[in-house]
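Quick illustration, no need to memorize.
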Amino acid sequence: LGIEKQKNHLGQESEFLILEYAENSKLFVPINQSHLVSRYIGVKEEKPQLNALGTQKWTKAKVLAQKSIIGYAKDLLQLQAEREIQGGFVYPEDSLTMRAFEEEFPYQETEDQLKAIQDIKKDMQSKKAMDRLICGDVGYGKTEVAMRAAFKAVLDGKRQVAVLVPTTILAVQHYETFKQRMASFNVKVEVICRFKTAKEIKKILERLSDGKVDILIGTQRLLSADVLFKELGLVIIDEEQKFGVRAKEKLKKIKAGVDCITMSATPIPRTLYFSLISAKELSVINSPPHDRLPIKTILCDKDETVIQQALLRELSRDGQAYFIHNRVESIFDESAKIQKLLPAAKIQVVHGQMEADDIEMAFHAFKSGFCDVLVATSIVENGIDIPNANTIIIDRAEQFGISDLYQLRGRVGRHNKPSYAYFMTPKFQRLQEATQKRLKALVESSGFGGGMKLAMLDLEIRGAGDILGTQQSGHVSTIGFHLYCKLLKKTIDAMMKKKPTTFLETKIEFPFPAKIPEYYLPDTSLRLEFYHRLGEASSEAEVDELIAELKDRFGKYPEEVSWLQSMTKIKLRAIDQGITLLKIEKFSLIIEKLLKDKTEKKQLFIKEPKSPEELEKLCSQFLKK
């Protein structure tokens, strides 16, 4: 409901978040405990049922979820342990050939690209089989990162590489990119797709099993029983969200014991979720390539005048455009309408039900500049990189998912020209609220680095769905996705450190003015954000970094912030040692600790500290770092 100032139990003026429960009951949460409050995301788009204060419903639901989470965490860690036991091939450090390959890259790598490359090399040079997600916006250089991993596997490890992609078009694009990039180094790259004859595929597969193909690129055809590698070392999966359940089951078998890289611009919530809870390593490429301009995104009702003006503007600067119409039965009618609007334009139609040769010819015409406007289905969603095409119009945008629209928009704006994306709907105001929200989210994320944000937005709009499987969905629905993930991460972290899993909260009751004062940071939402981040911090170093950020952004801070910094660090040490209460009152320090089924209580006589430094020094006598 908002924020209100009141005196706390120590008589100090403090800020409280006001939460409303069922039957108009209200709870006042101290602002420095705001990290305990999270937005509810359930399984479906439905409003949660509120509980009344004073009942045990919420507590019981949480206890049931916690029991289930412990079992689920054990299963997840078992999978990870099996991967570690199996181990992976340990690659040597970079050879001179690897360095020569990197020096041939014609562009300047971004910092995030270099960090992702470094992460991958570290993984490949370790004993554990790699399982890493590379998340980066469309055109941010994920492919170059993957190519360096592939090159290292082939040249430094004498291993073969499988590159699995969702569409034929993307397979061909990757084939051309990999082959051209590795041309100087005699790396044998092949592709199997519908553009190849059965005879050609048979020959490629024979050479593959003999070890004469280094990198094989393809669609789900790669998962067929007749695709046999002599020494598979690395699997690269592009746009994993495009693969079905059966394909993913086959993927599990082919990934066993080999290094794996998954690439995505808008990772599906399940993949994103596993990365967030440390079950999969994550590299994020947030920085755009140099000279890149953001795509201007326009959301509007379908209008022939707007279509005509948008296409004429693009063609008048000698550019090319896409018009996306995702219905095969009416695509030629749509093409005829566009031809009527632009009589002089050269227009081509392409869709997935056409013959392979016709598809190839249409793309070749567009790529070579013989075609001005390509009227297409979502077949162009992946793998098309035409520097001269910088306008895309998407008809019936409401029928596409967030990931699809994001990928389609990414067909333009891949170079340094101003680019435009039009999302057209029949009547925007008549669309369902969730659909409107999805489309608006895309417009708002048209700047750089929007892919990860969109994945989280998609999760909020659609609900957590089946990302955890049917057994866990009930608990997600009851306690919400964010709290579920928080408890799961806490459980996994405890298990990995071989410590007992406890969901108890640690209370710190010190009579010191630990806060971010309003006079220092007047913006309530920013104060709330810093309290939340401090509450979520998992190490003392992270706390120090946050306080340093506060100083950097808002200037020298008052003593109240120093008290808050010290108390937050002390709380982290207390949590780590299973302490449930730390309290200072009347020259005594009270420590309560849970030991199996009983609480141990200590009361120590102390000299009350006069500064944050004295407080830390005092507590360090009883709390190990």
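The chain has three domains: 96-285, 296-447, 504-620.
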